[in-house]
Structure formats: C-alpha cells, structure tokens
Hints:
The chain has about 90 residues and is an alpha+beta fold. Helices cover about 60% and strands about 15% of the residues. The protein is built from four helices and two strands. The protein has helices spanning about 10-20, 25-35, 35-50, 70-85; strands at about 55-60, 60-65. Strand 1 (about 55-60) and strand 2 (about 60-65) form a beta hairpin. Helix 1 (about 10-20) crosses helix 4 (about 70-85) and helix 2 (about 25-35) crosses helix 3 (about 35-50).
Amino acid sequence: MSSSRRNKFEIWAEILEFCLKAKRTQTWLLRETRLKTNAIKESLQFLLSRNLIEQLDDEGIIKYQTNQRGEEALKRFYTLVNDYFDLK
C-alpha cells in the first residue's frame, strides 16, 4: 500500500535536491514542496542546524543552497533507499 504523504526524510531530501541545482528562496521552496509556511521554516532550520545547507544573502534576498556536506548526505540517502528499499 502506498501513501502520498511524505515523511520528514523525503521532505529534507527534496529540499536538498532543489537547493543543489540552484540557490532557492523560501517562497520558491514553499510553492514547489507544497508545504505550509511553518513546515518549510522548520525544515530549513533543521537542515541549517545540521550544516547541510547554507543561507546566502543574494542582493538582499535570502536564498538557500545545498553545501558539500548536504550533497554527500543526499547521495547517501539515495544509496540507502536504492539498496534496501528498491521496489522492482
């Protein structure tokens, strides 16, 4: 049985993936992840506190970017999912 609800790990991975490709604003992430404002703020704070993303000031606009540690965590997450939970 499959559920459309995402768990925290999937949400964190999604944010890391989005911020790996380009610097993203909170508003952009809010729209793309379809999370509530409080949920996106909590997720960003969690990722910042774990040093997986960086908060950047881009000409007065706050943006987020996945750093090297976050990219490594993302790769390890996908490896674990593929190795142990691949639904072939």
